[in-house]
Give the backbone structure.
Amino acid sequence: MADGEIYDVLIVGGGHAGLSAALTLYRQLHTSLIFDTLHPRNTWATPTHILAGWEGHQAEEVRAATRRELLETNLVTFRESEAQEVKRTDIGFEIVDSEGQHWAGKKLLIAAGKQNVFPDIPGYVENYPERIFHCMFTFGYEHRGAASAGLLAREALASPLHAALVVGDTLKFAKEVTVYTGGDASLAGEIELAIKDTGARIENRPILAIHREGSNIVVELEGESKVENFLVHQPSTKMDLKLINQLGLELDARGDIVNKPPFFQTSVPGVFAAGDCASPFKIIPMALFMGANAAAGIARELSVCNKVSIIKEVALTA
């Protein structure tokens, strides 16, 4: 092994979920090694919300403060490299990183982030997330009282139920909401039925482009342009599947790792998952919660007093 040490836990991903797990593990005197490429999904300078004590701060400030705390424990090691290969061993797991170094651990936590996959609409990328919001819990409050907003009913929001829920969220902050269904007449009909009592409108013409106009955003349609204060859309996400495939982990329809609450064990014994890669709720509070709970499950599996998996026992009684 690169440093001759066998870590209690190898953590792939140094975002909020991985850091939360390491915080929980050190409180039980467990060692962990975190692989962090320093390329989080949220690279924009957007303020943090719904995180007690950190309102308005940058997400990187939160991560930096956590890293400082962890380094002071002498129980957590950071590797600014990518975990590229993983295999099972008699001890647990071995990871080979992007520098060709080998690392050993008893348990494995996958807390790797995911990357956004933006729709092919001219002007979309340039306006996300400053005027195209993925979550009204995160962005709505600062834009309360808006005259109008639009919802792009595609990707996750192509579900009539999901679209209707987000229309309800958006109407708390905008007087009028238009749902853009992009030329899909069948989807337009289904969503129209789902939102019939909300007062929101359907626009089924295809979107040709999006661009800024002052503090507003303009949606260009065939024969017309519509001005909105903001748009709402949840882009798809993807993750690097190298380790997922090597471990044989199961994925759900969203492409997230299948796991079992409350400790988020995967389909492979000894492997846990937390954060964006394992939840549809890709927000900091959820990542912190999952990281802490996964670490609690790991700590109990590592306990010398537990010859039988605590996770298995909890699953049987759930």
In short: The longest strand covers residues 102-110. Residues 284-302 form the longest helix (19 residues).
